[in-house]
Amino acid sequence: VVADVTRADEMRDVARAAVDAHGGLDAAFNNAGWTSTGTPMHLMADDEYDRIMDVNARGVWNAMRAQITVMLAHGGGAIVNTSSVAGMRATGASAPYIAAKHAVIGLSRAAADEYAEQGIRVNALVVGSTSTELMREVLTQTPSLFEPFTQRAIQRRLAAPEEVAQTAAWLCSDRSSFTTGAAVPVDGGWTAK
Q: What is the pLDDT of residue 141?
């Protein structure tokens, strides 16, 4: 199902499609994100700010409300939301992106607390620089960024997307049944510094 995370009605449609196809929704991984070109705050247009906040923060808000509604009707579940190291500290990313990723962690913790008694666990991934298609494109266009991106992590490399996915899968599974309200780093040790 293709949907726009900034539209609550489309997120409800996605949750309903999961129920129609599988009889319920045991787990959800909210992994949409958007950033800017690094425009300084005083020069950033309002529509650029709005887009970053809409995709990163409102997208998680819309998705979780739809997912929680379905999970409450089916006895619980697990939700994982993708944040970023930018959700823990200033990273050089744009201010709205940093604010939005802080919001993802806050929304995740608030939902974990609010719905724990109904059997819903919610966690956030604190993701570092990852070798996604977009990242590879950026590094191809600007090779001088490779060293700064890899030197942030104490492991001195980018994460593989599979490493992020495996952590998300663990958080969605019953193997992490006592983990909720957490901001789990998948950052090669960046936040350990």
A: 85
pLDDT at 37: 67
Q: CA-to-CA distance for 45 and 60, rounded, in angstroms?
A: 23
As annotated, the active-site residues are: 97
Return d(Cα 103, Cα 65) in angstroms, integer. 15
Task: Give the helix/strand (H/E) hosting 39.
Answer: none
**Angle of the 8-22 helix axis to the 59-73 helix axis, nearest 10:** 40
Q: Which residues contact 151 (CB under 8 A, 6 or more apart)?
A: none
CB 55 within 8 A of CB 33: yes
Distance CA 113, CA 105 (A): 12
Strands (E), the chain: 27-30, 77-82, 120-127, 183-186
Q: Does domain 8-187 fall into CATH 3.40.50.720?
A: yes
- CA-CA distance, 94 to 24, in Å (whole number)? 38
Please tell me the pTM assigned to this model.
0.93
Residue-range domain boundaries for the chain: 8-187
pLDDT at 93: 76
